[in-house]
Amino acid sequence: MPFQRFVETGRIAYACDGPHQGKLVAIVDIIDQNRVLVDGPASNVSRCAMRLNDLHLTKFRIRFPFTGSTRVVRKAWEAAKINDLWKETIWAKKVEAKKKRLQLSDFDRFKLRRAKRIRNKLRTDVFYRLKKKAKKTKAAGANKKVEKK
């Protein structure tokens, strides 16, 4: 099947827009084709309706009875350890990195630019040294073949 993430009860979603931007919520019920009822007990999002355009579905899903209360959702959330699983994902790490970049001052950006320049110079030097060494060994190998004939 080409799709793995479906809009379904218990699906964990990342709110990408609106007042709850950047928080994880669980889909509790499907209202219609464009809206769902969500609840975020761990991220302090009270039960409300959200547009599907404002959500990004994650790979996580929790199991609870149809239209379970906030207490039931919280228990399922904690049992599945969603917060720990989310922190380990590459997606969450990218979000954190983006937040850190936005909080950099001018001087921090300057220091970062200098550090990247130094790192790139070291990387380039090592690359050319290895390239030169490989070229020498290749030339030496070709000379041995010529001498054997």
TrEMBL record:
<dbReference type="InterPro" id="IPR002784">
    <property type="entry name" value="Ribosomal_eL14_dom"/>
</dbReference>
<dbReference type="GO" id="GO:0042273">
    <property type="term" value="P:ribosomal large subunit biogenesis"/>
</dbReference>
<dbReference type="InterPro" id="IPR014722">
    <property type="entry name" value="Rib_uL2_dom2"/>
</dbReference>
<feature type="domain" description="Large ribosomal subunit protein eL14">
    <location>
        <begin position="47"/>
        <end position="120"/>
    </location>
</feature>
<dbReference type="GO" id="GO:0022625">
    <property type="term" value="C:cytosolic large ribosomal subunit"/>
</dbReference>
<dbReference type="GO" id="GO:0003735">
    <property type="term" value="F:structural constituent of ribosome"/>
</dbReference>
<dbReference type="InterPro" id="IPR039660">
    <property type="entry name" value="Ribosomal_eL14"/>
</dbReference>
<protein>
    <recommendedName>
        <fullName>Large ribosomal subunit protein eL14</fullName>
    </recommendedName>
</protein>
<dbReference type="InterPro" id="IPR008991">
    <property type="entry name" value="Translation_prot_SH3-like_sf"/>
</dbReference>
<keyword id="KW-0687">Ribonucleoprotein</keyword>
<dbReference type="GO" id="GO:0003723">
    <property type="term" value="F:RNA binding"/>
</dbReference>
<dbReference type="GO" id="GO:0006412">
    <property type="term" value="P:translation"/>
</dbReference>
<keyword id="KW-0689">Ribosomal protein</keyword>
<dbReference type="Pfam" id="PF01929">
    <property type="entry name" value="Ribosomal_L14e"/>
</dbReference>
<comment type="similarity">
    <text>Belongs to the eukaryotic ribosomal protein eL14 family.</text>
</comment>
